[in-house]
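Input:
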Amino acid sequence: MSDPANITLVTMDGTTFTVPSAYLHRSKLVQDWLRSEGDKQAMEVKHVTPFVLQGVLNFCEIHAEDTSEPLADPADPTKPFEADPRDDAFRGMPDDQLLQFTMAADILQIPELVRLTAQEMASRIDGKSPDQIRAMFNPDDLAEEDVDSDNEMGEVGEEGAISK
Amino acid sequence: MSRIHFPPEILNQIFQFLPSYDFQVVSFRGNHDYALLACSQVSRSWRAVALPRVWSELVLPCTSAGERGLLRLANFLTDAALDRRHNLAHFVRSIEILTETVCEHETTLKEVTAPIVRIIQLLRPGQLRTLTIDPPNPCPLICYDLIPIFDTLKSLMTNLTTFQISGIVDHGEEAIDLLNYLPVSLSSLTLRECYNLHTLPSQSPPTTLPLHHILALPRICHLELSHLPSSIHPTHLICALRTWSTSLRHLSLIACPSLHDDRVIYALAQNCPNLVRLDVGHAFESPSLRHITDGAMCALIDACPALETLSCANLRALSDVFLGYCARNGRMLRHLAVWNSPRIRGRGVTDVNGWSNLEVLEVFDPDGDMVGEFGEMDLDFGRAVLTECRKLFFCRIGYEGEVVLRSG
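Output:
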């Protein structure tokens, strides 16, 4: 049986990280796992790379002593986001890396980290045109009929500013 | 450059943080700053996630100025509905109907209601969650008729969670009948100006609101009532408070004279420990506002430890006994307003340690003496507040003109 004071996480390539369980008290996935399968040796985090998991654990360690009430919903409007200088590393991160952290936070269900990374990604998108966003992320294309529909939608919005 | 693939659930998380739509900004500057609309035009996968958010809230300006836009929107959504994959109306979860407050008779509001009805008819029963209606005052020349809008909305209200309307009584029985369609799923209800201010000669006398139906709704956590008729008895509300119990977070009873009663406050204290906000009173003095006393308000402070906002207007029976108790025990209070209570002067209230979280304090009498640092309010009380309440950033003690602002 594993040490209840510590938890071992295994990444997609088999790399293991053993940290105090208390670091991960805001991770709903880890807390659920500790309750149901805590007697096992290690918890697998299959879709997360060692680099990203290390970064997530750093975030958890930095915030382990925080006394704020855990967030139930990352976008809870009653709890406005306030930038924390301890999280500056996430603000200078390349887009693709930031996305990896957002996904890891989502997988591990850490609302505070989801909020931090998703908020940062949103701030990079906000104010940019579709072309500028495409240049950032090179996503798949739009169908031709969608482009026609968008043009009309834009005209409707400009006249009456109807849809929120 | 390599393609970055965003899983839909991650895009959804990100899009939650894009700024909400601002009607005025978009009207003035066009759509280009509207981030969600831009996201819907990036790629197929982004579009699939963004479009439901873009169209989730509709603002329908029931004004002559909005006529052209409404007509075009109605045509656009009708065309889109022909293709099931692009039926944008099915994404709508919230409708807000904005109106001009006064009909100027030169408007074409009658023509505005028709496209609004067409748009509403494109929605499916049960898809709407939030409905906000701010109808105009009735027009004596009957330039428009909102009844078709109300009638169309009724079938869409089966899953509503939030409903807000102002001045419904003015529009007669058909409008009031809308309240009978409020479903059991409703958690937030705001009924403003429920008095018959603009009854037209052609209309029948004031109609009774279906308060029994409203107070029987089981899931209310936010209730705002203003200018309710006196026909509602405190026992009706008390019974509802027992039902709502721990769910109730916000209660506002403005100018509801029959409900300004100790029995309601004690019922809140006994049944609603999670109350976060209470607004009670009336802007104008009324004899009935003497029925809320220190004892009931102190019991409320004790029993509702989550109470953050408390506004009392013209509660004439409140005294420094309540103020002192509140100052010692209102530990979660962040906003306290006590207007026009002549027996509240702050005398002997110097222990304000309970207000460690207080950010806004307004204790004043608009008709009070404007002489001295805090008008008629006790000097020691004012100084204790300014010294001890470290988080206070807005303070008005004594009379309206005196405001202390702090930064940080």
